[in-house]
Amino acid sequence: xxxxxxxxxxxxxxxxxxxxHLTWLLKQNGLSLPVxxxxxxxxxxxxxxxGLLQKIEKSIELYPCDLLFIHRDAERExxxxxxxxxxxxxxxxxxRIIKPIAICVIPVRMHEAWLxxxxxxxxxxxxxxxxxxxxxxxxxxxxxxxPDPKETLYNILRIASEKTxxxxxxxxxxxxxxxxxxxIEDFSPLRSLxxxxxxEADIKEIIDNNxxx
Length: 213
Fold this sequence. Notes:
Layout: E1 4-9, H1 19-28, E2 35-39, H2 51-62, E3 67-71, H3 79-91, E4 102-105, H4 119-125, H5 149-161, H6 165-169, H7 173-179, H8 194-209
Parallel strand pairs: 1-2, 1-3, 3-4
Helix pairs in contact: 5-7
């Protein structure tokens, strides 16, 4: 059986939580092959790549794929600036390297904003799926404007865990945050967000252009 391989190159290790989003979008937009995903873990290299261009080259070398997703959080930058940075890096790839089919993944702030819509997934990731504590998720239309989506998610996970005292201090909130996306089956609510809309449009275009459907 043939498989479809994609690699995610991201800003940091926590961003591999985007893989379920990307897998869902590929399938929703007509990809018919079974998907195999990989996160480009460049931290294990003895000589760390310097800059985006070297990171892309190492990702292609170590994680060959049909499609390369390149993630950059926009944070306070214009998302178009991030897209331009990625495009420029791709244009400078060593000529001996086959230029990959690539897509930019650029949440408006941080990827954690794209996890703040599914209460049941957050409760499960907190280790307390049947908890009754009140957790106030931000309104979906506002999550791209949160000043610190990561800290918002962490605080909500702590509340959902219903742990107190020493147990709360020992609560592995970062690990739990990384699990939220694994418990989400339907990412369609995010289609109301501009950055997610752009990502889906790019994915659909790539799938159609390459007859992957």
